[in-house]
Structures
1.
Amino acid sequence: MGSCDINKKEVKIEEVPVMYEPSEMALLMRGMYEFNKAARAQIINKDSLLPFPEEFLLIHKAVLTDPSERDKEFDTIAEQFINAQKATFSAKSDSTLYHFNKSVNLCISCHETRCIGPIPKIKKLLIH
């Protein structure tokens, strides 16, 4: 062994696992999903719906996982979604189903152009 070998040390760098922190929008959308899952059951059972959740309006300013995805298309679909959701929770019972499915389809159409992962889950909200 040469003197150079004695001074060599193996340096191990420990990798610290990075915990996933969902964005404001991811958390909001999860809440929207859960609320609409309950609303779906209420519609199917012909129960009264709760009022439109005002926190859904945060869709206009919640931080997205990828902030570059907030564009004109996103804003347009988000506004249409809010209008359809408001109509769902304020409509006469004969049009509740129409507005509910319209809002779910708007979610799907937005997710088709960005973040496609949740589409199968969202489709399960549709009432056939």
Note: The CA atoms of residues 40 and 120 lie 16 Å apart.
2.
Amino acid sequence: QNLEFQYELYSKEGLLSSGFMVLSYIPVPENFEFNAAFPNPFNPKTTILYGLPIETEILLSLYDIRGRRVTYLSKGLQSAGYHKVIWDGTQHSSGMYFLQMIAGEYVKTQKLMLIK
């Protein structure tokens, strides 16, 4: 996100200076966040939002009901900030899936329901 500031500086004699400045702003959460996927249940796409307070290695893995890994939705070093992943389940069968996020010592799992 960009923030733009416009300014004018005056003295008793009149305008001294004016201009603008653009700053890039990257919001960073204070703690790890792993928001509920939406929509859920879904057909065929769902959106996953998560936040990282520090740059860290992340594994965002999707498992089927039997506990077999279906895919990695995100894997590797990621910067601090908010991130978004969209999973398209078009090529997968209807049913319950488990989405797990591991970032350092932070581990959280949630259920997803794909309905076709």
Note: The mean pLDDT is 94.
3.
Amino acid sequence: MKVKQSGLLERLFQRLLHPLSAFLESATGGSLALLAATALAVALASVLGEPTVHHFWEQPLRVSLGEGAGFGLSLHHWVNDGLMAIFFFLIGLELKRELLVGELASLRKAILPVMAALGGVLCPALIYLAFNHGQASASGWAIPVATDIAFAVGILILLGSRVPRALIIFLTALAIADDLFAVLIIALFYAGEINLQALFAAAGCLATLMVLNRAGVRAYLPYVLVGLGLWLATLLSGLHATLAGVLLAFCIPARSPLRSEQFEAELEDLRQALNREHLDPSPNDPFLNAKIAELCERIEYSAARVQTPLQRLEHRLSPWVAFLIIPLFALSNAGLDLGAVAWNTALHSPITLGVGLGLVFGKFVGIASFSYLTTRLGWGSLPAGVAWPQLLGAAWLGGIGFTMSLFISQLAFADPAAAEAAKIGILLASLVAALIGVIWLWRVTERRAS
């Protein structure tokens, strides 16, 4: 009985203290949902026509804040500026966790995925600029720099036991570092005209959030209310509103009010109380026994207190982001009328070539070369159980730039034709990179197993 309870306690701690496991579980389903939403977006644009789909997403939706007050955005902008702020909020939570206790927590552990991510930013950008230097389209240089974490990690998980878990963790850390670079690029290079009054308001909201964190406030409501103010002020400031999500995430407390030793002691007391109730002749069903129901509620309360607010939010938001927000983003941004595309012109467009070759070859060359350089210089080493052929397979998967690439293309181009050329490059390159990565890893693991 004692061994069984000890195993249960160990599994509970694993569940509470390793949110990466929950993330990896949702990555596969999320990538399939994203794939389905993309296919639906392309199908709707091809059947109904892009103008019809575009007209739908440009319908205004206004939020009233009282007598004559309020503001409105199109459905498209509510998705890109509103819902995607939640996506960036989740990225911020994941990044903060990785910096505190994950693969980016120490220089020795972080150096390889960070250097690989840096190479995966520089090489694609240079390839894009080689095709677009001196043209107005050069503003899209950042489109091929980001890896889509859901697709890339989801594919690795689908390969199952054929790839070591350490390779999945490496690619996850790389993609998170990659997202950090993308956030910095958006903040530095894709800001609009700055409204100083709104910027000061955003700074005030951020300062308030920092005070809440330092004061030990762990209730969600104050962070939600001030966070909404931060989002609105950032939206009006000229910076992209999604940056508010990252800033808010870094203000969410990462300390739990209940230490693990205290949690274990409370569980032991509650276990003994439950055993005493079970010895009582009264019903053991919590629905029929108020005392047992109360003990179960206390266990649930203790389990919630031992988790940090950051962990709880990450657990709760991950399914919503993976299965609702990202598919909605794909549905509103990935629509492409395949029959109306002038393929000969599109495939010779410097935008399409820069994005496509930047993602497929730039990502692979950048990740592989910077990883090799890092290990060669002795700054870092390959993850345990990961061989170079497997890391090169992950480097190919790094060329799947879907979500963040589409997002940056919306910021880079006001011209619909340029945005469509970028979209074609993103979709084709992501497909090619995924196929090469899967075939490469399948062949490598097959040879290693034989």
Note: The first strand starts at residue 60 and ends at 66.
4.
Amino acid sequence: MYHALEVAKLLLRFAYDDDDDITNLKLQKLLYYAQGRFLAAYDEPLYVENIVRWTHGPVVPVVYHEYSRFGSNIISRPRQSNESRFSARDLRSISATYHVY
């Protein structure tokens, strides 16, 4: 199991590799879908943090606060994602979530 910030950095890397723009709102929705798909596929959570209900949708507060300085603007390229920390299965699952949603 991972931390949501690790998964968020990986999702951001996928977005920038695909030359896609991503905001905090979109990142939160991707984290929500990634957790749900992972739970459905493997009957275990992808990351340890809880998802909470906010006005504009599901939020992982620690990730929201990490990127809140961008407001509703596009999040700039992350310095690094520790892709090597993820198993091949988990990378495939997160990548599939990103590319589907």
Note: The first strand starts at residue 52 and ends at 54.
